Amino acid sequence: KMAAGEAAGRYRSTMSKSKDPSGLLISVIRTLSTSDDVEDRETEKGRLEEAYEKCDRDLDELIVQHYTELTTAIRTYQSITERITNSRNKIKQVKENLLSCKMLLHCKRDELRKLWIEGIEHKHVLNLLDEIENIKQVPQKLEQCMASKHYLNATDMLVSAVDSLEGPLLQVEGLSDLRLELHSKKMNMHLVLIDELHRHLYIKSTNRVGQRNKEKGRISSLAKDASSVPLMDVTNLSTPRKFLETSQFSTPGSSSMRETNLLEMKEDMELDPEENSTVFMGILIKGLAKLKKIPETVKAIQDRLEQELKQIVKRSTTQVADNGYQRGENLSQDNQPR
């Protein structure tokens, strides 16, 4: 009995001190193992059963008292559990979708790169087709420019067309005839420009002097003072050299200023290109430079210099003789044989 009393005391102290069920179980096992009397064991068993029944009653009472809160807590817990489960499933689905999107984006990127390259190729092809279409019209436009003597525009057009035909469009077989035709025209273009240059250097300039001389002679004959007018007055003639040495340039004789002036020369398609002979000759020189035929031009001028000067002397002599004969006729009509 004393042992049972001690065991019960230890049981109560253990229950009060410890809330751990494993500690309680160990205490009961120790009490039963130290007790040798069957009656003590039965007593201990009865007390345990009584304690468990009391716990069940207390638990039932607490459940009855807190049924609403307990139900709400259980439902809330279930709801939270379901939400967590759904969230996990959704996150898993989102991860799968992200991986799928990543793969699709890689595919789209390759597709977009391919389309971008194809777009560049098509744009290049369209540019080539536009260039071919423009080049096909070059012979007709070239003929019109040559007929109107807009040689600089014609030279630019011809050089650009030949460069394209022998460059980016070299592999286009359908343009072989046009390529040969324009190349041949480019090879012979400088001959036309050189002839025009000589015509303005030696023929048109002297014709202008003769024309001015005739006008002065007419004025002088009206004034009855023909002897005071010289036959040839070239002091005011605007020659290319005088054109370069006028006040257009801050430093006369400066090669850089002359070069700049030549580079800045432009052709007005609306005006007569031969109206200003000096500008026209500058344009001819610019066209020859674009054709890279300046050495040939210098050689042609040197070769034809003597012949052209002789022709100037011949024409001037004929002009002076004709002018003198006309004056003699006028004087004879005025009864002044002298």
Automatic annotation (TrEMBL):
Residues 1-21 are annotated as: Disordered. Pfam families: Sec8_C (PF20652), Sec8_N (PF04048). One of its GO terms (cellular component) is growth cone membrane. Residues 46-144 form the Exocyst complex component Sec8 N-terminal domain. It comes from the Eukaryota. The keyword Protein transport applies. Keywords: Coiled coil, Exocytosis, Protein transport, Transport. One of its GO terms (biological process) is Golgi to plasma membrane transport. Residues 45-97 form a coiled coil. Residues 273-323 form the Exocyst complex component Sec8 middle helical bundle domain. Component of the exocyst complex involved in the docking of exocytic vesicles with fusion sites on the plasma membrane. Belongs to the SEC8 family. This is Exocyst complex component Sec8.
